[in-house]
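batch_manifest entry 22 of 60
target: Lytic transglycosylase domain-containing protein
source organism: Bacteriovorax antarcticus
requested by: lab member K.T.
priority: normal
notes from requester: please return tokens only, no post-processing; we will run our own comparison against the previous entry in this batch. if the run fails, retry once and flag.
--- input ---
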Amino acid sequence: MRLVTLAAITTCYISAALANPNLNFASIAMADDVPFKLNYSPLDMEIGKELVSLYADLSKNELKKSTVAKFVSYKNKKQSFSHLDMMTNRLELISKISDQDSFYTNCAIQPRQVNEFTENLAHRMDITLDKYCRYLFLKNLSKFSPTINLSTRDLSYLKDAASFYVTGENQTDVSAVLKHFKANKSEHEKISDILIAKYIDFKTKPTSAILVNLHVSTQLNNFLQNNLHLDNNSGTFFQEEFTRLIKDSQDLTDKGEYVQAKAQIIAALNFYSKNKKFIDERKAWVGTTLAAKALYYKGRDNDAVEILTLARAVAPKEEASEATFYLLWPHLINKDYKSMKAVIEKFNMEKNFESFDSKLQYWIAYGLLKTGEAKKATAYFNKIINSSPYSFYSIISLKEIATQNKGMSEQDILAKLISKDAPVEFKMDVTSEELKDALRRLAVWNALGHERFATLEIRHVQSMDKLSVFKDKELAKNITVNDNKEFIVLNLVRLLHSQDKFINSFKVFQDSLGENSLSLNYRLIKYIFPVGYMSLIEKNTDNIDPLIVISLIRQESAFNPLATSRVGAKGLMQLMPATAKRFNRKIRVTHLNDPKVNVALGSKYLKQLLTRFDGNLIYTLASYNAGENRIDRWKKEIFRNDDPLATIESIPFEETRNYVKLIYRNRFFYSLLQNRSVLTTPLDESFKVTSAVK
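--- output ---
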């Protein structure tokens, strides 16, 4: 059986070319790696399959003795799953449970937190076995005579397990135990009191099936009476009432009754303030913001500004940047830059600059640039590039700097975004068996298509410190923490890339950038922006830039020809079957999984949209994502000026706004890999497609 190559890891040295500010970046990015082969074995694959089966069985509260025997046999063989030996020991013990004494010996409850975040597979399997033990405990209780008195250890185990039961685990079995002991008043009360105490601790209402079987105590009655909001029906009523008030305000706006509409929005916010524990915070903010925007599009700018300020006050913490951005948004659309600056000053946005996301940071810098503070704006653009190098706003910040510094070379400006240094690399023979085994296991999960286990393996590798990564402890001491992380990320990305697991590789890369544990360099860009299907794309894009198509494919399907969206879009370019039939009436849904068919029809559709919208890339991409008719309506009702960035920020759908930004970003990086100039075209013109670029 042929073994699978996982990763190419080589020692690299910084060459003279890397120190040259005029180097050909793309040639470095596309340089071939000298491969060092790391293989998983047939036995690794066999164990992986058995582990998937075991996990599925345990999730159904089943455990087969034949499965346990297999895992026992694996312990004495050379394989990459030796870190699960402790799990195998537990499996053996659990499979030998024959009575209550052996249960407490072999299934002792583990002191773990409820809903604990797991960083590796061994931990996940331990938690799964804990859950199985808690299931066995309930099953054993149901087998007891209902007239017996529960032992101290029975009640103690129940207290420890109750946290899991009241938060949703084994609900049917909990109800069965309560029902089983109902005739035994004293024991039924003991069980009920333990559970009720945990329901109160977790502020969780028992299900109807459990509630009817609990011993109803004064404590339980008081808890239920004081926490009516835990009743789903109550929450639904308040949420629906708030939504109705907001919708009524929008209806009034559509009718031109603006004073009443504004009063209705304020009434909705007052209603929310009084009943906020029943109403989703984010929905309240989104609804209020949309109502304000409706007023703005009807020319009621001052009313919109006032409501957007109120909306910011109810925004959840994670939306603080976005809510603050909307204080600037009306003035941005109106090109009223003095008002933008006044808002920046009023809300101390410069003082809090570091706490905002790259979007708000960019618009703060832009407002300052437009009001004559170019030096300060440039300093902020540089901060955005340093902190969020992979973002859309970093790219347009770079373009702003290029505009302000026409005397600088393109390579020098790009160096602000992308490191000229090669990533840190070492030969695999200096790394530990722990790292190599983890990479082999990850490749097994990828080959089996088991995303959950693959994610756990990635987390495990990412959490490894340098003493775990390198077998030579003296070598490890001389490696910085960041170099260790960069080395890990590079090889995770390589492995995932080699198995076409692009979404996971993108996520590993982006998370590492977000943690500032990785520099953006050309070698990594090569892996994050794959060029698969490029020859096929070029055959189908005579009149449009093939980099637009590959940028779209990266976003739409991550190069998975079998991708299917929740609404039925298919294949590489995520074509809807009805759209495909416009170009070939004989097309069947299954044909769209064929890359040749999908790219041919998708490119025709994209070309048609570009023609329809006169080469406007924003309208074209937004149309591809949200539908052509919507763009026609937005052009009439929403898009107020010719500034492309303001147009993007005015797209009503968050998904579509982000889609346009991400494809623009993708095209930028693909252009770098193609050695195209990316900074000479003015920002405004970069959103206009006039002819194909080959």
